[in-house]
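Handout, section B. The chain below has 321 residues.
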Amino acid sequence: MIFMKLRKDLQKVAELYRAIQSNDEIARNLGFDPYDLPGYETIRHFINDLLDGEVLDHLFYIQLEEINHQLGRYDEKLGEKTLEDATPITAKRGDPEAEYNDYYKVKGWKKDLLIDQKYKVFLAFQNLGINENEGHVLSLNLEKLQEINIAVGEITADGKYPTYENIAVAKHMYRTDLFYRPQDGWVHNSKGDVDEINRRYQKYWKHHDFRTHAALESKLGFLCKQGDYDWVGAYYRNLHVQRYNRRIKHCVRRYRIERNTNESFNNYLKQHLGFETSLPQKGKKHAFKHTTLCLIAINAVALTRLQNGITEHLTSVAYLT
């Protein structure tokens, strides 16, 4: 399936099988014995039936773990600076399952993608309805990565992500900072003032983890555990807005560059792997499976390069096939 995503002329199982039958080198590269090939129905059943969403999700994170391990050989790691955004998946014409979104002006779905800025490796994904708010999946991605010991240092994201809850949880549960542009209408929230933080903390004086002379960071961490996200998130968002406005030219430029980089990479994904244009069938199940396989294919290219001692342009597929 990875090979199929990298070859625009092999988008159907029958086309792939003919290529395997007619080219011994392709067969060997895909791990087959050219003189003892499995039957077409076996390959079709594996690709269409056995590779379900759960299997692909498991494969994606096993592969990612190995990429991070390979980078460790060069004292490098994934996740230090990342980008997160959702990209639309345009449905095939006439798909009854697809919803219309007025912002994208298309019918379909979308995929939330977390990408490593330096290596352009996909770190996490979530499948979403096209009208669903992607902001709520940020912590789900961080949780997935924590399970395979990948720490995310910073995420650059648009205004849908820096909710008070996301800011608080990212900071105190995953040690992750968010970088974002302050939105129109945001004002200073007094809940984030130190006096208000102290006052809120004092309400828990009977709690067994309460400490009389706790440091501010400890108080914020404690309040986060209690679910007091409005206070914790407001503290960090107030601080971020102040810092952003103090260096507004630098921050605006940085935000624009990083967002443009993210959009360019998403376009690259669509152009080179048919992220939208090569959907095999109608229906969200097929759309999500196809796009997940595209991510796995890109990351497989990165892993192959690392295994062969190459550490630059890991996810470039230009001229690959």
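Note. Residues 1-50 form one domain. Compare this with the example in section A.
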